[in-house]
Amino acid sequence: MSKDACAFAAFLLLAALSFTSCASNSSSTTGTQPGPGTPTAKTTPTITWAQPAAITYPAPLSSTQLDATANVPGTFSYNPPAGTVLNPGTQKLMTTFTPTNMAAYNNATASVSLKVNPQAAPPPNSKTTPTLTWPQPAAITNPAPLTSAELDATANVPGTFVYNPPTGTVLDPGNHTLSVAFTPTNTSAYNNANASVTLTVNPPTSSSPSDFVYFGGVGNMLSGLAIANNAVSTIPGSPFTVTNQAQSEFFLAGAGKFLFISGMSPGVIVTWMVNAQTGGITQTSSSTQPPRLGLGTDPSGKFLYGMNTSAYGFSIDHQTGDLSSLPGSPYSLEDAAGNPPQISPDGTWLCTAGFAGPGVTGNVFCAQRDPSTGAIMTNPSNEIVAGTGSLEGGGPFAQNNYLLANTLQFNSSDNTYTATGLAVLQISTAAVKTVNTYPGVHGEIAVDLTGTLVAVSGDNSNLTLFTFDGTNGTLTQKAQITLPQPPGALTFTCDSNDLAVSHPNQNTVSVYSVSNGTLQEIGGSPISVANGADQSVAACPGK
To answer: Number of helices (H) and strands (E), helices first, in the chain?
Structure first.
């Protein structure tokens, strides 16, 4: 080696030694080698999740599909979770894996696809009809209502039962068919089913009165009378306090086991339930209504109507007596007044009377009615007004939709009306036709529930009993007596055997037997009642 080359090599060696010495003596912590305690890099676990076999809707997810595994200990969280019912189609399943040793391993995720086949449609005509089991129910005694003891059908598959008549219905004595409609939960596999049984309802075993009648008037007292075995007595607890507002005028409407009472002030209809055994009454509900509504119920007892300047219609809850307004109520009716409305025996007509007095026409107004819904149809083509001052007071209907009304004679000299007689009107869609008139018979009118007995007590204080012929609308007099004074109200009992007549000025009621076509006063009559007694109604619980 030359002298120069040796010098250069020595230089390089010296430089290297100097660099190493400097590095070894530096205070910096930066270096290329890890020091003691430096963490090592975490790894990601390996997840194994085989493609699951297809399932058929509506099978839920289970561990058969959610069965992923990992190469280290830890836990899996699935989305969607076990138990989920997926819609038909290809669905994505996901899982998140959390390792037990979080210091050494990362979380990991994975996913697979799952095919969900649609539910196979049953072949045509493959549905079966469920088997219903309904034991013959034991007989019950009126007025016991239907309960689950009678309405206890079962089926061999899940589903729902709808009974007719429903729970709570009170059936008349006799044999009745109970029916049920069953709807299965799985309507794809099962048909609807029906069943029926016969239930015997025995007559009441108690010696309760056959009929109850109630009289009210000015004031807040309602008197109840029990009529049975050719005798009248006061119902225990009578007279009943029926409102907190004294000096109110009451209109009563009987509907099966309920009485509805309308006061003048405040405007309210109060519902009272009649005890079928004692005749006592208990308030069940109260609803605010316009004041002084003349009340009346239809023959079915399902609907209640109130009249003032409009007609108010209500459906009646047969369990509680609660009232619900009918669609379209109140109805705007021509000549509507505060007189109680009258419903024809077939339920197709509602009639009422306009006010009659000096200088004021007295018309009978009729409108068509839907018997099934209770709605009043107020189309002008269905509205009929009979008379131009010659008819007064929409008296009750008799058999075959004949309406009874008082007739008037207008005196132009002094602008007054003179009572003249009774008219029998036939109601049709075309007009109100007068088919018969009876001069000299005028005043309070009552018709029994059969529509074949008519009682009239006029201003001359004669009480006359008629039979009514529904084929031609004629009245035939059967009996007549003279009362001490003109009556305030007439009411036939529900069995049509007796007629109750009030004497408001004497605060008494006389009851007459009419079962043999005569007017024979029964035992205990006349009987004292509370103040007024110019409104009356018969209640028919259990009838």
So the answer is: 1, 42
